[in-house]
Design the sequence.
């Protein structure tokens, strides 16, 4: 008899002895056959099968979705997942919270990391009637009084506010007019504000609180200007205007308003490079450097050697004495241009805005501005003028509200230099001016309506910094995309996941998948 049989017999005899002497009042117990193993068994470690159908996908927002077929081995035991995520060449162990749906398990993974927030330099500024606008980091900002293009709607602001509804980071041109504004964003033209004269280019609508796309221009806009109640643009080398037209400022041969972009006539055969709009007249230059003006002709502002009370011109007239024109600007009653690096002005000079060294009554032909070296940009306000020349900003004309930025309210009939370091652009509005200097923006002149953007409404006789808290942008490493204030890996950045799992000490070999990317 073996040891196992002996042990089993002793257990049975003991059980019979217990059954033969039951306790008083106790029920008879059932016979149970017990087995005692004298030899210890060897326990083998189990290996679970790997996850099936592992997949991962991600998009431009930086969110990835990882999925696989739910593991069925030992369904009574919750698995512990081990996930390693590799972005580029960096591997990180993460702890996701997977969720089961039917036969699929998945988790979402946010691949975004905080972006570096940098101050964005101002690349363009446009001073209008009662408001001012600028571009920083491809984003449009406006301030002052009027329809500022914000959501929720703001009728006025003493510091810059971000314009809504424009493709983020794509604004390349902006123009502030009388009480309306237009901008080019993503290659398309948008306008907002006062539209009662058709100046928004979208038919007869009284106003638009937010930017609205302007149709009717088949080519990208390369030059944009906003006058008092009208707008003009260059698209595909041709000039288009729309809005108020009583003085002929739309240049289409009539005095009828146009509520959509209408081609300026008489410029066939010329590729146009720039257009500028004043209060009631406009001018345009060609790529070859020729210059034309049209609209209200009083005070000689069309540059035609004509008498002071000349009739309006409903179509463009060539300015005969200027060639090699590289910049042109229209004010209220005067016009200025740069030809062969020399500044010229014509029209009304009552406040000295022609810069000739005298308070001219009127000049019907272009006359050279005195005392300026090589000029790179010129800008006419309503009754004053500013320019960039020799690495300095210069202003002249009406200084009553401090619009010349020279520390006083004195008119000047010749250019005087401002105390600005490294100015690169200047813009003149109604009794105020702004300049970009070393990427920062400063304004001066009349402060009513908050159009100086410095947080107040007081006049400033010298350049004053614009509040630039909003002029910021996000920067990311190469091949990463900016998504708001985060950076997310772009399509050229590989992202993969290695997923394994453990159930009560039993493990499954990890499986690796590279995520697919879609915009």
Sequence:
């Amino acid at each position: 008899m073996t040891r196992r049989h002996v042990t089993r017999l002793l257990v049975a005899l003991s059980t019979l002895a217990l059954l033969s002497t039951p306790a008083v009042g106790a029920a008879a117990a059932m016979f149970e056959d017990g087995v005692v193993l004298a030899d210890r068994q060897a326990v083998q470690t189990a290996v679970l099968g790997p996850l099936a159908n592992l997949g991962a996908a991600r998009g431009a927002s930086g969110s990835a979705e990882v999925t696989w077929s739910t593991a069925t081995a030992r369904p009574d035991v919750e698995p512990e997942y081990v996930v390693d995520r590799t972005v580029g060449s960096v591997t990180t162990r993460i702890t996701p919270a997977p969720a089961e749906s039917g036969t699929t398990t998945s988790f979402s993974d946010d691949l975004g990391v905080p972006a570096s927030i940098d101050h964005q330099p101002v690349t363009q500024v446009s001073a209008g009637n009662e408001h001012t606008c600028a571009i920083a980091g491809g984003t449009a900002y406006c301030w002052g009084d009027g329809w500022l293009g914000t959501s929720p709607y703001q009728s006025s602001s003493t510091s810059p506010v971000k314009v809504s509804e424009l493709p983020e980071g794509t604004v390349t041109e902006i123009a502030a007019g009388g009480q309306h504004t237009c901008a080019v964003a993503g290659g398309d033209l948008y306008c907002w504000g006062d539209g009662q004269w058709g100046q928004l280019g979208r038919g007869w609508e009284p106003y638009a609180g937010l930017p609205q796309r302007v149709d009717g221009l088949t080519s990208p806009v390369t030059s944009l200007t906003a006058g008092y109640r009208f707008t003009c643009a260059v698209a595909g080398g041709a000039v288009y205007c729309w809005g108020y037209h009583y003085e002929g400022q739309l240049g289409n041969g009539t005095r009828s308003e146009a509520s959509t972009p209408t081609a300026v006539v008489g410029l066939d055969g010329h590729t146009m490079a720039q257009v500028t709009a004043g209060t009631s007249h406009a001018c345009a230059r060609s790529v070859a450097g020729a210059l034309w003006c049209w609209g209200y002709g009083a005070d000689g502002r069309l540059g035609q050697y004509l008498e002071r009370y000349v009739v309006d011109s409903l179509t463009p007239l060539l300015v005969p004495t200027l060639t090699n024109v590289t910049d042109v600007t229209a004010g209220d009653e005067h016009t200025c241009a740069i030809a062969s690096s020399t500044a010229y002005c014509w029209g009304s000079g009552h406040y000295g805005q022609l810069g000739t060294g005298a308070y001219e009554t009127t000049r019907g032909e272009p006359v050279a501005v005195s005392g300026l070296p090589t000029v790179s940009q010129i800008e006419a306000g309503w009754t004053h003028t500013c320019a960039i020349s020799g690495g300095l900003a210069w202003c002249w004309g009406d200084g009553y509200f401090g619009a010349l930025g020279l520390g006083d309210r004195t008119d000047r009939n010749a250019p005087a230099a401002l105390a600005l370091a490294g100015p690169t652009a200047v813009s003149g509005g109604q009794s105020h001016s702004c300049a970009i200097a070393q990427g920062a923006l400063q304004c001066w002149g009349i402060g009513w309506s908050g159009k100086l953007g410095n947080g107040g409404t007081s006049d400033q006789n010298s350049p004053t910094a614009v509040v630039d808290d909003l002029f910021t942008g996000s920067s990311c490493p190469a091949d990463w995309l900016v998504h708001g204030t985060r950076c997310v890996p772009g399509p050229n950045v590989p992202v993969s996941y290695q997923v394994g799992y453990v159930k009560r000490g039993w493990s499954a070999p990890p499986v690796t998948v590279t995520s697919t990317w879609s915009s």
